[in-house]
Amino acid sequence: MEQDGRNRNNIVPGKEVDIVLKKDQKTGKLTRGIVKDLLTNSAFHPHGIKVRLQDGQVGRVKSIILE
């Protein structure tokens, strides 16, 4: 199961997500990780909420992994 990554209230630190890194935007390659910080302040972003993963990578959430 997956959840949309464009609404900020769906994303909390500790969640597992798939993000697109800036360098991968053209290819759409996804990177999976655990959210450390939310970097987008608005409640909604059409390209996905920007987050920092626990390993330091920054990108926009494309999907939220649900157990």
From TrEMBL:
Pfam families referenced in this protein's UniProt entry, alphabetically: DUF2196 (PF09962)
Superkingdom of source: Bacteria
Name by which UniProt lists this protein: YwbE family protein
Annotated source species: Bacillus solimangrovi
Record lineage: Bacteria, Bacillati, Bacillota, Bacilli, Bacillales
